[in-house]
Specification:
By secondary structure, the protein is α+β, with helices and mostly antiparallel strands. The protein contains eight helices and eleven strands.
Amino acid sequence: MTAEAIARDFQSRVCESIRLEAEGVNRYRVFTPFMLDDGDHLAVLLRRDNGHWVLTDEGHTYMHLTYDLDEEDMQQGTRRKIIDSTLSAFTVLDRDGELVLPVPEERFGDALYTFVQALLRISDVTFLSRERVRSTFLDDFRDYLGERVPESRRAFNWHDPTHDPDGKYLVDCLVNGMPRPLAIFALPNDERTRDATIALLQFERWGLRIRGVGIFEDQEEINRKVLARFSDVCDKQFSTLLGTRDRIARYTEDMLRSE
């Protein structure tokens, strides 16, 4: 199929304003009206790859996401699940960060429509609702500690079986095996910070030798009075999970060696 015929198929199946511009042999830039959140147009190229036509973003979509997200956060938690489910649903391949869709049986227009939908949906992970952002933070928290603390040394959603059999005072992750276990709390908002404060005060009343640790989604978003009360009972806190991963890793490693 000629470039002119491919362009006509794109226009009839997707949008009349689509056009192709040659960039070398068997390589074309596909200009579409579809844009990302910052006004940039989707990066779409059509090229010959091992004897077959493919549509590719040449890594632009993930690169664009890193303007707003840490690259490590795209590889785990809810965001990773959204990306993986999108790739699977639209049969798009991830080749080391380059998103590729082979064109089946010269169905260029259908392939472009599918590819555009996939790129837009993946880009939408930066527009998660407040509730989805919260779930992402909690998933990221759990994934992060799950990777760095041996399973035998941690317990998620822990509560003291003797003093609190009903689990009223939950700890997001208890790291054990040292003289003073770490009660690590994931803190996305004021409410969770208040709950963590109450739990640590209760542990103190029960005489439990537990070291309180808080990891905030964004400490600057926490009410000053709520934060002050938590600081009074907490042994260690990190202002954000995104920006302090290395410090959290060093801290937990040091504590694990203190058994």
